[in-house]
Amino acid sequence: MTRTAAGPGRLGGGPQGRRLTFLPRGVLLRHNVGGVIGGAVLAIVVLCAVFAPLIAPHDPLAQSLADVGRPPAWMSGGDWNHVLGTDQLGRDLLSRVIYGARISMIVGLGTVVLQTVLGVLAGLYAGYFGGWLDSLLMRFADVWLSIPFLVLALAVMAVLGAGLTNTVLVLGLTGWVTYARVVRGEVLSVREREYVLAAESLGERPVRSMVTHVLPNVTGSIIVVATLQVSHMIIIEASLSFLGLGVQPPQPSWGSMIAQGRDYLYNQWWLSTMPGLALLVTTLGINLLGDSLRDVLDPSLRGRS
Fold first, then answer.
1. Model confidence at 129, in pLDDT bands (50, 70, 90)?
2. Alpha-carbon gap, residue 145 to 92, rounded angstroms
3. Of all helices (H) and strands (E), which one includes residue 75?
């Protein structure tokens, strides 16, 4: 009786074991400074994205010839009506940075959801059933991952055209392989555990077994990969927008704002610096959260610490 109760919890076993270890993991995460900071940063960015119309002091697209190139409020010539200054068209930079968070979150979360669905389905099927389909999927993944992701995205975007919708679709359809490899590796281990084999011997259908016994045990790895991928996708979107193949003006993407301000770096450094700082802080916070989740959800890492 004692051995049966301890086994799943120690090995990250069935759904019951997951529920028993959820509370300690939550406690560990709350005491992880990096995770708390990363979670707070992500929460602030999400709030800015959701409530941008209420938070932003000005219309991000409104132009004012009287306010062209105004510096941040703390500098000489600045105005507290435009805290971070204005751009070359007189648009309020703070408002554009806030609305840029909305673009980044749409791309980051939207692409990760699409990648997760495709990758988890492929990884579950390949790892659980194996056979020729598993071999074919892994060889395809090896070839796919040998191509630099940004180069692949650039090639597809050049064909499909720029825009927010195309950016989400392209990044989502080209980034699922990472999830498939991670999930497959986890499934290969989980499917040989006693409770999975016992369920199969009792006649449980493979699909039900995958959903009820296998999937709950790979959820931790999926969460970690998805969290880290959000920051990666935000950076890729910023890179595409910087090159003119992502979100198009006048939509205030951080990448396009950095690109528009690069010609004014000497006299109006804030045009590129402010969206660049927003991008840096956001991706750093998400990475801190992802690393903390990995430490909390990975028993081997907790054992080393």
1. confident
2. 41
3. none
